[in-house]
Amino acid sequence: MGIVLKTPEEIESMRVAGRLAGEVLKMIREHVKIGMSTGELDDICHDHITRVQQAIPAPLNYRGFPKSICTSLNHVVCHGIPGEKRLKNGDILNIDITVIKDGWHGDTSKMFLIGEPTVRARRICQVAHQAMVTGIEMVRPGLRLGDIGFAIQRYSEAQGCSVVREYCGHGIGKVFHEDPQVLHYGRPGVGEVLVPGMVFTIEPMINVGRRGTRLLGDGWTVITKDRSLSAQWEHTLAVTDDGYDVLTQLPGDEL
Ligand code: MF3
Ligand code: CO
Ligand code: CO
């Protein structure tokens, strides 16, 4: 397909979609608590996206995905399917929201701590967040994608954690997943050169234990092979003339 550059006007449209996705994460926060099921969280997000935002939850029926959001709990790396499972004290949960507004996608995810997680659980959430921030803050024209992957990997491994290889960030626009692939590991000086108008996600999945993953029989849920905890954060960003613009960040909020 190739990388589709976006015009400044198109980036403003993507910011609308991005902010809506960010607002869903903010809206759902008060509901993410002990006793709530991931299916109930999905219902609330689905209603908010379709009724309040007048937007489309991109995951629903995407390649057969059955729900409107992804909920990835503890040792689930990504693409967890909301269901009957109830949140309990000490859980860590990634909620991944992608909305389509006026044909444009916004994709963002974050970790939620339920009750009082262990030091190790809190730490993997922090390391995954810092891994994402490390990647985002490097973005500028002339940099190469391999530089970003290398920096995310170097930081994460220096913290004693591992980087998942099988899933990556991605170009995004009218299409949910488009070129380029944004690997969260790699070698400096290789890969696509960034230019203004590129829009992609950075969404590292970081494990406490080994990097290996396994796909469950439902065809979606990805877990760590060694059952160690995994964490992920995601933003959608555009390359600007002198740096980056995080389209899924709400005004006044931290990354
Ligand atoms: N939102 C995920 C991503 O960051 C993709 C989810 S695909 C789904 O790319 F089908 F599982 F929803
Ligand atoms: Co994504
Ligand atoms: Co996502």
Structure description:
The chain is globular and about 45 Å long. It is built from 4 helices and 15 strands. It is 27% helix and 25% strand. β4 and β5 form a beta hairpin. With 255 residues, the chain is an alpha+beta fold. The model has no long low-confidence stretch (mean pLDDT 98). The site of one cobalt (II) ion (CO) has 5 residues, from β4 and β5. Residues 96, 98, 107, 109, 234 line the site of one cobalt (II) ion (CO).
Describe how the helices and strands are arranged:
Elements: H1 8-28, H2 38-52, E1 56-57, E2 70-73, E3 76-78, E4 92-101, E5 104-113, H3 119-138, H4 145-158, E6 162-163, E7 169-171, E8 178-182, E9 199-202, E10 205-207, E11 213-215, E12 222-224, E13 230-232, E14 235-239, E15 244-246
Antiparallel strand pairs: 1-4, 2-4, 3-12, 4-5, 6-10, 7-8, 9-14, 10-13, 11-12, 14-15
Helix pairs in contact: 1-2, 3-4
The structure holds 2-amino-4-trifluoromethylsulfanyl-butyric acid and cobalt (II) ion (2 copies).
One cobalt (II) ion binds next to loops.
- Calculate the terminal CA-CA distance, rounded to whole Å: 30 Å
CA-atom Rg in angstroms: 17 Å
DSSP E strands, number: 15
Task: Note the quaternary state here.
Answer: single chain
**What fraction of the residues are assigned to beta strands by DSSP?**
15-25%
Shape estimate: globular
| Alpha-beta classification | alpha+beta
Ligands in the model, by name, code or SMILES, are:
2-amino-4-trifluoromethylsulfanyl-butyric acid, cobalt (II) ion
- Helix count, per DSSP? 4
